[in-house]
Each structure stands twice: as C-alpha cells, then as structure tokens.
Amino acid sequence: MKKRNQVMKRAVPLLLMTLLATIGLTACSPVGEYRRPEVRLPESYPGQTAAGKEMAAVPYRKFFADPDLLELIDSAVENNHDLLIAMKNIDYAGKTLDVAKLWFLPEVDLSATYDYSRGSRNSASALKGQARTSRNYTAQLNVSWEADIWAKLRNAKKAAVAEYLRSADVARAVRTTLVSNVAQGYWNLKMLDEQIDITKRNIALADTTLTMMRLQFDAGNVTSLAVDQQESQLLSAKATLPKLEASRTAQENALSILAGRMPGTPIRRSTGYAPFVMPDSLGAGVPLALLSNRPDVRAAEESLMEAHALTGVNKAMMYPSITITAQGGLNAIESSKWFSTPGSLFNALQGSLLQPIFQHGQLKAQYEQSKIKRDQAELTFRKTLLVAVGEVSNALAQVEKTGEQETFAKARVAALRKAAGNSRLLFNSGMATYLEVIAAESSLLQSELELADVQRSRLSAIADLYRAVGGGWRE
Fold this sequence. Notes:
The chain is of the alpha+beta class and 475 residues long. Helix content is 62%, strand content 11%.
C-alpha cells in the first residue's frame, strides 16, 4: 500500500504538468479556423428577369410529370453503377471518420510473454554456483496518450469530416447528373420514335404519290423523268429509316445501362411529346444559392476545408509533442506465483517531450506542399463556382431560345402541310408540276423532323437547367 502511494505521488506532478500544458496550448493551433474565400457573385444571372422559387429545392418526382420517365429515373437512382460506386466511397470515408473520432483517446495494448534461458557450464553464473536456467512470466498492459497541444488531432479529425462530407456531395453530384441524363435520354428516345413515325408516314405518302404519277405516265400526262424523280424521293425516305432505327436502339441500350438494366430491356414510354409546362413561380434562383444547392460546388469547398485542416496537421508535426506512457501488470519467475498479488504486481509511468530537430527537411517540405495543395483547392473551388454560374446562364438562354424555335417550327410545319396538300390537289388538276409536289413533300418531311428535334432540344434544356441549378438530389 505504501509503494502504491509513492507511485501515485510521483505520477501526480507529471499528470498536472501535462494537464496544464494541454490547457495552455490547446488554443495554439498553427492555422486559424477555416473561412470561406471571398467570392463575388452577381445578384442575378445574365438575362434573367426574375429569380422565382428555386427549382433546385423541388424533388425530381415533383419536377417531372411523365410517369414512365419517373419510373426510369427511380430505377437509375436505385441501380446505376456509377452512383452505387459513389455511395461506397461514402462508406469508405465514414470508416476513416470513425477512426478519427477515437484519435483523442489513449492507445492501449495487452501483451503476455514467457522467457526461458539456459546458460553454459562455464558461464559466470554457473562458476559462482548460481542456477544456469531462468524463467520469466510477464503479463502487462501498456497505455500511451499524446496531448493534443497543437491541435494536430483536432485538425486531422476536421480533415476526416470534410472528406466524408465531400464524398457525400460527390455522390449527390453524380445523382443530379444521372437524373438529367436519364431525362435527356428519355426525351431523345421519344424524338427518335417521333421521327421514325414521321418517316414512315412520308414513305407511305411518297409511295402513294409514286403510284399516282405512274398512272399519269401511263395516261401520257407526265414524263418518265417525273416517275424517276418521285421514286428517288421514296428511296431517299426509306434510306433514312434504318439510320433512325439504329439510333433508337443505341439510345434504348444507353438508357438501360443508366438504369442498371441489361441492354435490350424494353423502355416503357408513351407516344408523342407531352407538353412540359414549367410553373411561372419556378426559377433558377440567384447565383449565391449555388453554394448550397450545387453538390459539385459544395464538394469543391469541402476539399478546400480538408486541405486547410491538413495544413494544420503538417505544421503541428514540426512542433514539440508530449506523450505519457503507463505500464502495469504481473511479473514472476515461477508460473505458480505469476498471478500472486500483490507480490507480482509492477507498474511504470513515463512522460516524454519530443522536439523534431532534423528530419532531412521532410517535415518542412510536407508543410509547404500542404500549403500548395490548399491553394490548389481554393482555385478549384473558385473555378467550379464560375463554371456553375456559366452553366446556369447557358441553360437559361437555351430554354428561352429553344422555346422560340419550337413556336416557329410548329408554324412552319402547319404552313408546309397546307402547301403539300394543295400541291397534290393542283397536280391532279394539272395546275402544278411534279417538281412542285416533290419539293413540297420534301420540305414537309424535313420540317417535321426538325420540329421533333427542336422539341427534344427544349426538353433537354429544361433538364439541363434543373441539373445546373443543383436539382435532383433532394428527396
């Protein structure tokens, strides 16, 4: 009991010294707290009339109305392999964070050893008449704790937290892109369906016109050149069909892969384009909102936060460290007395102060490199934010201009349909030439194909705007 009290008396000054040093130096972090770099953002996007309610806050199930499209997006969010890989990265970063949370606790090791030695007959102990053999049984517990006086462990934990948050936002960025890509691919598939239907209708119409011209040729009303021209027009339309069908198959396979399905799986969809009406209350918001809405912008800032914390870790490596080590256990030279207490009990307590002096310049180089990494991360953050503002601005212009294109394209199709019908009536009455009929039908086919493409472009622009403002990752 007296020996134990003596040990405690020797340990108390050491513990008090460490405690006072920790309290006095905990605030002495070699780097300050992270602060977001000053960024100058415009109050609104170029050409934007009103910010409106942020569409980024609207879940995709409420933003898109087509049930077939929603079913496809749900499948992609659940089964897309790129997104699943990103989710695994979150799990990986979470394990690192779990370790970082325990860095403040002491390290504890438990060991048990048995030593046996037998000296020679001519050894000093043998010549003195002492025993030539010796045995030693030891079971001990080792505890080691480093005082976090320069915030090395705190900054390491901050870096682990930032990495975990970054991995989560990277996954969200993958999801926003995935939602947009599925919507664009779905609408592209419907455009190809529409173009194939238009081409088939025009093939049937061209075939009817060819039959009519052959009858006119038999009656001597037109030359063989008219028949040949119309037959060429029919073959041209037929040649377009396989190309469109091949593109449709490729798009179906691409959507199946995005949805995590085997290529060749049928994609359920309705016929024709359902009008997409975006409520007037919805808008792109303001550029400042990108800092919280765009996952890639958030991830870039979290990379900067991680780099800032690691700068503190590397700087602290150059400063003194205080470590307390305690040992205790059972030791005996006979197995029968190994666990006999208190006779077999032993303990030790040690405090150490370590100041790196010369490490071949590695510590300083690591610190300087970490500062460079931080500068790179800040530049990446600024660039990512600029790109995000540009993408939203481009998407807004694309939505507006494709809407205007669609209006003009619809009017053109209506006019050419009327012209094509009149040309056939005039031709039957002998008041129009076959060239006028062919030209009218050719123009109508081209305008209908262009209208389908413009409609697809407008819907794709809306999906891209939804992604650009940071929509698609919220539930």
